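Researcher: Sequence recovery benchmark, item below. Answer with residues only.
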């Protein structure tokens, strides 16, 4: 089998990407974006194909890693997108909760926005390769660091990021939102990188 890491989401893999993303993050987002059918419809609608790296094995999607810049994010969406899937009333409260969860991430200059690897493909270094692809993209764009947020209950992911050169730089507690999202805080982790030759220099913001 041949594994390839590539920038961009092929159009014919959008549904598979939505399913993989939901399998990874549905436990956290289920009360906001659920039920499953609606969540998959929403994700497939809003995924931005140029803000993601994918792992393809013989043409099948086995992993992905999204990122966020000032230009947009892999999984973003607007109130109009929410309204199209959940209706007017459903869009309002979902929009508020999503905005509250993402308020700190909006300050990040280059944010890694979720790494997912299919269960049957885990343990083979695919997640590490996707993270390195994200860091290489940040370097190419002239950023000095890559930031990510990992929830306090996901110690396995935190250990992986530490092995890949990320260090904890802060922790944000989400207060009453913990009853909705199922975790208490998000740990901010940062990896410093060196911009490549000829890369466009992009100013960085402070880390919370």
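Model:
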């Amino acid at each position: 089998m041949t594994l390839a890491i590539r920038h961009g989401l092929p159009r014919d893999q959008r549904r598979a990407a939505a399913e993989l993303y939901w399998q990874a993050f549905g436990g956290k987002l289920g009360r906001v974006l659920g039920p499953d059918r609606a969540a998959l419809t929403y994700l497939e609608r809003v995924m931005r194909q140029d803000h993601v790296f994918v792992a393809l094995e013989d043409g099948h999607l086995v992993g992905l890693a999204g990122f966020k810049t000032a230009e947009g994010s892999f999984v973003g969406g607007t109130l109009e997108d929410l309204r199209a899937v959940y209706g007017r009333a459903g869009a309002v409260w979902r929009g508020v909760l999503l905005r509250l969860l993402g308020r700190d991430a909006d300050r990040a200059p280059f944010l890694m926005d979720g790494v997912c690897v299919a269960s049957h493909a885990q343990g083979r270094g695919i997640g590490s390769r996707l993270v390195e692809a994200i860091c290489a993209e940040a370097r190419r764009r002239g950023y000095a660091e890559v930031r990510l947020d990992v929830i306090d209950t996901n110690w396995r992911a935190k250990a992986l990021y530490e092995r890949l050169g990320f260090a904890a730089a802060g922790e944000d507690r989400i207060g009453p939102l913990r009853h909705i999202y199922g975790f208490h805080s998000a740990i901010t982790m940062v990896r410093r990188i060196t911009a490549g030759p000829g890369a466009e220099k992009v100013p960085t913001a402070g880390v919370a």
